């Protein structure tokens, strides 16, 4: 398997090679790695805050992008394409969880706008670069991070903004359900056109990160007391994303839902192709992306 050399990661935990890991926090950047497929991969991290990195054995570049702003996403993509470099892996891993009801700069409910629409737009704007970078036997990959909460979600096509009756948990779960539907339809489109790009979706498990800062205080107390027993560490939570990004076992394989580095079934409605198409078309309208399926 040819080493992967160009990776974009949107989010907090970054995968580089089957045994390599990059992670960072808002207050202190920390980079660690172990031997992987490529001795010197190039990693570009999308982030909404400034970071500094030291003691890193491979190049890591931070480039600002606010996934809650379509203007910021388009600006990021423009700057990336000006570099005229390939892109072998895109990891969609940014997000918010159970935040109070509020809107993005573009007027979308924040869970749906940032967790889902932001990644939808980013992926579509980078598809041409991914297509150019993939080749027979060495497909480019899109890895999108969802959550087990999608199993209890409902997708209300008439109220994707959760405006009628807002529930932070329901809004978060819906955004994660939308990501699964998006991934499956994206894979269908990529396979239909015969491009050397695959799309898979992963469930990292219950990971102890600051995403839980908005949950009920009692839940936070339980997390603090029993996190060692109930939760994965951020490093452990990254492994399925790492697996999806680089394992030779998934060469040319897409449309899979992965948990603990194994394929498993997602919620039954995610396989509804009509629902996938409806969400895709509506997402195109919301983001200004050309709907190639029409």
From TrEMBL:
Q: Which GO terms describe its cellular component?
A: extracellular region; lipid droplet
* Protein name (Swiss-Prot/TrEMBL): Polyprenol dehydrogenase
Q: What is its EC number?
A: 1.1.1.441
Q: What Gene3D superfamilies does this protein map onto?
A: NAD(P)-binding Rossmann-like Domain
Known role: Oxidoreductase that plays a key role in early steps of protein N-linked glycosylation by mediating two non-consecutive steps in dolichol biosynthesis. Acts both as a NAD(+)-dependent dehydrogenase and as a NADPH-dependent reductase during the conversion of polyprenol into dolichol. First catalyzes the NAD(+)-dependent dehydrogenation of polyprenol into polyprenal; polyprenal is then reduced into dolichal by SRD5A3. It then catalyzes the NADPH-dependent reduction of dolichal into dolichol. May also acts as a positive regulator of starvation-induced autophagy.
What residue stretch is flagged as signal peptide?
Answer: 1-15
Answer whether the UniProt record assigns the keyword Secreted to this protein.
Answer: yes
Q: Name one GO biological process term.
A: positive regulation of autophagy
């Amino acid at each position: 398997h040819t080493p992967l050399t160009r990776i974009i990661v949107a989010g907090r935990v970054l995968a580089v090679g089957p045994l390599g890991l990059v992670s960072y926090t808002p207050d202190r950047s920390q980079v660690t790695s172990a031997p992987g497929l490529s001795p010197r991969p190039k990693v570009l991290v999308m982030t909404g805050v400034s970071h500094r990195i030291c003691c890193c054995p491979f190049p890591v570049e931070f480039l600002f992008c606010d996934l809650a702003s379509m203007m910021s996403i388009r600006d990021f993509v423009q700057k990336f394409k000006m570099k005229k470099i390939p892109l072998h892996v895109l990891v969609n891993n940014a997000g918010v969880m159970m935040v109070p009801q509020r809107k993005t700069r573009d007027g979308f409910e924040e869970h749906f706008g940032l967790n889902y629409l932001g990644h939808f737009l980013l992926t579509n704007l980078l598809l041409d670069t991914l297509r150019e970078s993939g080749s027979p036997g060495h497909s480019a990959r899109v890895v999108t991070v969802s959550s087990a909460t999608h199993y209890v979600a409902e997708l209300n096509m008439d109220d994707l903004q959760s405006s009628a009756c807002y529930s932070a948990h329901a809004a978060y779960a819906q955004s994660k359900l939308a990501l699964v539907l998006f991934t499956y339809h994206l894979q269908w489109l990529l396979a239909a056109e015969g491009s050397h790009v695959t799309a898979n979706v992963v469930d990292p498990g219950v990971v102890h990160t600051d995403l839980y800062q908005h949950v009920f205080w009692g839940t936070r107390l339980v997390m603090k007391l029993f996190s060692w027993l109930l939760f994965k560490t951020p490093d452990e939570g990254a492994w399925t994303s790492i697996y999806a990004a680089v394992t030779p076992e998934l060469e040319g394989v897409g449309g899979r839902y992965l948990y603990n580095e194994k394929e498993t079934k997602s919620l039954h409605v995610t396989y509804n192709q009509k629902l996938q198409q409806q969400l895709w078309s509506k997402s195109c309208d919301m983001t200004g992306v050309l709907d190639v399926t029409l």
